[in-house]
Amino acid sequence: MAHRLHAVALNMEGKTASQIANVLKIHRSNVSLWLVHWKQHGLEGLLEGHRNGRPPGISDRQRHALVDILDSGPVAYGFTSGVWTCPMVARVIENEFSITYHPAHVSRLLHDLDFSVQRPKKTLARANKTLQSKWVRYRYPNL
């Protein structure tokens, strides 16, 4: 706050943003931003505010609609798979809400919506358990 007030005082003395930045040993763009805030909002504009980051891409109402879609299942939405994947959910979000999500970020969104990651076991559909067991016990050690 002291730097900001000092910058405003130097500006009132007729110093430019570059000169103020050199005196305060800070970047010129910060000084310019502080002066704009000072002119628009006065002393309130110089106060350190809450930084909440980038706003969420999907609203609460859209989240509830997405939960309803996901609860109904991928087949009901028109997919052939019986399990939701992140790329599929990203496609649903883009189709329904015109918001683009990267599949990696969809997993965070799903976690926030209390969905858990389910990874299916990979098994052979027509495998004979007895023959597999014999192969693992006798053939595999000899390889």
Briefly, what is this?
It is built from eight helices and no strands. It is mainly α and 143 residues long.
Question: What would you note in describing this structure?
Answer:
There is one protein chain. The protein is an all-alpha fold and 143 residues long. Helix 1 crosses helix 2, helix 2 packs across helix 3 and helix 6 packs across helix 7. Among the domains are: 45 residues; 53 residues, no CATH class. It contains eight helices and no strands.
Which helices and strands occur, and which strands form pairs?
Elements: H1 2-12, H2 17-24, H3 28-41, H4 60-72, H5 74-77, H6 86-97, H7 103-112, H8 129-142
Highlighted features:
8 helices, mainly alpha
> Approximately what portion of the residues adopt beta-strand conformation?
under 5%
The overall pLDDT, averaged over residues, is 86
> Secondary-structure element order, as H and E?
HHHHHHHH
Give the overall shape: elongated
Rounded to the nearest angstrom, the radius of gyration is: 29 Å
**Helical proportion, percent range:** 55-70%
